[in-house]
Amino acid sequence: MTQLELARQGTLSPQMRLVAEREGLDPALIVQGVADGTIVITANVNHRNLVPCGIGRGLSTKVNANIGTSSDYGDINTELEKLRVALEYKSDTMMDLSTGGDISAIRRAIIANCPVPLGTVPIYQSAIEAISRRGALVNMTQDDLFKAIEEHARDGVDFITVHCGVTLSVIERLKRQRRTTDVVSRGGTFLIGWMLHNGRENPLYEQYDRLLEIARAYDVTLSLGDGLRPGSLADATDRPQVEELITLGELVDRARRAGVQTMVEGPGHLPLDHIVANIKLQKSLCRGAPFYVLGPLVTDVAAGYDHITGAIGGAIAAAAGADFLCYVTPSEHLSLPDPDDVRLGVIGARIAAHAADIVKGVKGAREWDLKMAQARKKLDWEEQARLCLDPKRARQVHAQHSTGGSACSMCGQYCAMDLMAKYLNITVDKC
Questions:
Q1: Which of 25, 114, 264, 340 is the most buried (most CB within 10 A)?
Q2: Mean pLDDT by 10 residues, the chain (431 residues)
Q3: Which domain holds residue 395?
Q4: Into how many domains does the chain fold?
Q5: Same domain, residue pair 235 and 253
Q6: String of b and e for 162-197 (b: at least 16 CB within 10 Å)?
Q7: Are residues 411 and 344 in the same domain?
């Protein structure tokens, strides 16, 4: 039985119990959230070394790191190093987006070394293999696509991005819309090319029940992908994006009836004043399903620094109710990320997630900041480093300029904390 089916029976699974312990919450709240579909526990029955993770309402905001090869660069070793870095900096989940090399071997190597939930986008593999074996992406068969989905599920993938809402009617609306950046989703583009060439409906929509059967068999969480997400601020919250979201909301209902866990993916590029409205719209249309956002990126002109634009958007989105942040690295729009890009992307997304958790009232979030404030008052540098999101970086920066006193080199002997401690102690003694 899936986690959703168990929760509906009132059964506290080992995975639910572990999530409750990690979140510091009453297990009954986790059971109820999973039963309602507002919490998902991404835990494929075949992922043997997995530490389960809960995503959704009332839980801490989670962070995902994307890795994977491209057609130009990367192999098993490069991706395992990125995995190591992402785990070192405490990404909650991973996604393997490989499109180059032996995709199956790379995925299996990542799963074997990945104790956190792993996601994939199976259409990448089915489309690329169709090019290799059948001469063109558009020659991919429906069975090719579902074979790839089942292979990923059987290997132990915990959640899969499936662009089920990219329908023929959405494509017609897209044509009328005349977007600035058209479609920037790779999976969405693959499907649209196939649909237009073959004059057929999206197999993931047309044969959604077939997809649900595979997901239920392995307890794979469906991450309903945003194939029409805006790729620029000019296209934000337009008709194709919203029509796709309406369809995804209907598919959430069907998945829940089938006992399959679902979450919904969201934009993309959004100006600051669109973010809260997008979160509210998704939560309403998708009946509280966990919301997984890429960024969102709040400007189009920060290439090389998009981990910052993504963190700005992510903090606002998560504070408004988004549950899951996909990191954005500095190399977004420019190149395949390297391990240092992965580090910066994870840290940026974790800053955003934690800032939002303070606003959400997540247990322990505000207390963490209070401990840091107390350590700063004491000028306890080791405790400050220990409490940091990146202790290694904190120690490195503090040590780079020598100082003769207890303060850091920013203020030296004129440290406000140090001076005020002395002033207040003198005042207290005199009184």
A1: 264
A2: 98 98 98 98 97 97 98 96 98 98 98 98 98 96 98 98 98 96 97 98 98 98 97 98 98 98 97 98 98 97 98 98 98 96 98 98 97 94 95 92 78 86 66 36
A3: 365-430
A4: 2
A5: yes
A6: bbbbbbbebbebbeebebeebbbbbbbbbbbbbbee
A7: no
